[in-house]
Write a structure and sequence with these properties.
Blueprint lengths: L1 H6 L6 H25 L6
């Protein structure tokens, strides 16, 4: 995380962090594909 980048000390489980990031990415990408599919705010 952010603090680990500065101090080299982390306080959380790496596997939990990776899981949260992957779930968030899947949600955001799915939502983007959904918006493209329905044509949200596209001008013809």
């Amino acid at each position: 995380g952010f603090r680990y980048g500065f101090t080299g000390v982390s306080q959380g489980s790496l596997s939990i962090g990776i899981t949260v990031v992957l779930i968030t990415n899947i949600f955001v990408i799915s939502y983007g594909i959904f918006l493209i599919h329905i044509g949200y705010k596209l001008r013809a």
